[in-house]
Amino acid sequence: MAQATARPSKAQRREPGETLKIAVSYVVLGLITLAFVAPLLWMVSTSIKPNFQTTRFPPQWVPTQLSSEGYSALLGANSQAPVFRWFLNSMVAASAQTLLILVTASLAAYALARMSFPGKNLLFGAILATLFIPPVSLIVPNYLIVDMFGWLDTLYAVIVPGAAGAFGVFFLRQFFLSLPSEIEEAALIDGANRFQIFTRVILPLSKAPLATLAILSFLTNWNDFLWPLYVLFNAPNFTLQPALGILQSSYTTNYTIIMAGGVLATVLPLVLYLFAQRYIIEGVSRSGLKG
Known about the structure:
single chain, mainly alpha, MetI-like fold, 2 domains, globular
């Protein structure tokens, strides 16, 4: 009886040109990953060095001497920098603004995607047009409005002005358009009104894009440096990003302390992304299906 010949595996059936393309793609992806990860690794490395080693040339990626002086200066009992207060301020501001964005963007997006009313397309075009306005040009009018409400040097100043943005409306509208209209028709036949359909049918089906928008909104507020710098004046009221700027003194720069602060400011966004990356990928891919 003739011995059965083993079928070649998929890797064995690849042509030499295809194998070369795969190898080149892995090399390119590796270089891109290295370009993004290298600054983060350098920040962590610098944060655990003694300060005198941070300015050595050539730079030392691996510290020859480990030191916790940066973290001790920030988190120690005698620290002059209220890092935990700054961290809490950033958490409150980013969380509150994210919640407001989810409420305003989801309501507006549902109305623009699933309801008919005069001027709907014109209104949506006007909302999209605001995406082309440079954010820097809004600093002065926003500052005057915040001052008029008496919110300067309070967290309201870094929460409310960005609580209704065009990106969230556009992002959720694209997803709502991809949902089949039959689910709404069935709910209407069962006697549900528009608000009940929105809260009990549409929102439960929109967990992925809502989670994506929440993460993006949270990180945008968390990483904001310029606007809090204009509206927050006293150190206890600072959010984390502008507060890191005051760690640099007038005549010397302690890079160990600054990098330790950068590590503390980076930990939470990385953890959030690791837990939410599945929702981000799913939400972005599904929200871009229909224009």
